[in-house]
Write a structure and sequence with these properties.
Number of helices: 11
GO molecular function: DNA-binding transcription factor activity; transcription cis-regulatory region binding
Oligomer: single chain
InterPro entries: HTH_LacI, LacI/GalR-like_sensor, Lambda_DNA-bd_dom_sf, Peripla_BP_I
Number of domains: 3
Strand order of the largest sheet: 2-1-3-4-5-11
CATH class of the largest domain: Alpha Beta
Protein name: LacI family transcriptional regulator
CATH topology of the largest domain: Rossmann fold
Keywords: DNA-binding, Repressor, Transcription, Transcription regulation
Strand content: 15-25%
Radius of gyration: 27 Å
Distance between the termini: 84 Å
Pfam family, one: LacI
Largest sheet: 6 strands, parallel
CATH superfamily of the largest domain: Response regulator
């Protein structure tokens, strides 16, 4: 009788040779049902070199670890895409599957989390770009390992049932403001929603710290710290600027988006940047027209993705260890918008 081969099993089950090979070598990527079919088919064909019962008992079928990145308001922004791509690469290198879970930006009445997050099918989650406190609290209540990339300002770190990664912003913004003051810019304003995210508040704290250190007053009429959304940036900045009677020497913005909207407003109203007003941002996001000229704080997206992945893997392996708060260092990049 002709000896059975891997190809014979693949042909009978209408699957690839690779799938059969994975089963006999205990590799991930094959469903439990298919593994069973391959083993049964091999038994019927008297496939050798090993006894199948010994194969099943000696090499237990391993269920692939699956984790998810959880986000709200999916964007085409390269800033977030780069982080997610790095996450996928890191988990792939570790033989771990990555699932993408989209959540609404605001919770509708009667909302419940997707079943995939609650039925035990995933072993950990990374939460990023979620800035609704109610949604964060729902996620925080899940009894699986989790890592947050930033949280809303009003949510306490002590309440988190998981690890927290933050982008350093207090010292980097303080450095920018300090440099502006030393270069003669005395009246400096701030633009950014400080209740939106903990990192936004820390950037504002860096601005305030530098102003106080040099005895400069915080002037409310040139500071906007209220609510801002992606859809309302232009409208809010325009209304805010229209109500300023005398422009300050500089504006420090919470991110590059706000900074670019501000530069567009200033230039459309006949003001020179940085001649009349210096402007800085945060993120070093090259998707905006003025980015190449903008003084900003550079964020290493690949480093963030790699660190998030490693932190989740650590938390999965060490669920009882104390939760951690980790800051990712950033770097100030000076460009023409501040004439420094």
């Amino acid at each position: 009788m002709k000896r059975a081969k891997i190809q014979d099993i693949a042909d009978l089950l209408n699957i690839s040779r690779v799938t059969v090979w994975k089963v006999f070598n205990n590799k991930d990527g094959v469903s439990e049902d298919m593994k069973r079919k391959v083993l049964e088919c091999a038994a019927e064909l008297n496939y050798q070199p090993s006894k199948l019962q010994e194969v099943e008992l000696a090499i237990p079928l391993k269920k692939q670890t699956l984790v998810s990145v959880v986000v709200s308001r999916p964007e085409t922004s390269a800033f977030w895409v780069k982080i997610i791509h790095q996450l996928a690469e890191e988990f792939s290198n570790s033989g771990i599957g990555l699932m993408y879970t989209y959540l609404p930006a605001q919770i509708p009445e009667g909302y419940v989390l997707p079943q995939s997050l609650t039925d035990g099918s995933i072993q950990g989650i990374i939460i990023m770009n979620v800035y609704d406190e109610e949604m964060l609290q729902l996620l925080n209540g899940l009894s699986i390992p989790k890592v947050f990339l930033d949280i809303v300002t009003d949510m306490s770190v002590e309440s988190l049932n998981g690890d927290l990664l933050l982008l350093e912003g207090r010292d980097s913004i303080k450095e920018i403001v300090t440099t502006l003051i030393k270069r003669g810019r005395k009246h400096i304003g701030f633009i950014g929603d400080i209740q939106y995210a903990k990192t936004n508040m820390e950037r504002y704290e860096g601005y305030v710290s530098a102003m106080y250190q040099f005895g400069m007053p915080i002037e409310p009429n040139i500071c906007y710290t209220g609510n801002m959304t992606v859809k309302t940036y232009v409208e809010i900045i325009e209304e805010f600027m229209n109500n300023i009677k005398q422009l300050p020497d500089a504006f420090v913005c919470v991110n590059d988006h706000a900074a670019n909207m501000l530069v567009q407003y200033l230039e459309s109203h006949g003001h020179q940047v940085p001649g009349d007003v210096a402007v800085s941002g945060y993120d070093d996001n090259n998707e905006f027209n003025y980015t190449k000229n903008l003084t900003t704080v550079q964020v290493n997206n690949s480093q963030i993705g790699k660190r998030l992945a490693k932190q989740l893997l650590y938390r999965i392996d060490n669920p009882e260890d104390p939760f951690e708060v980790t800051y990712i260092r950033t770097r100030v990049v000076y460009r023409n918008s501040t004439e420094i």
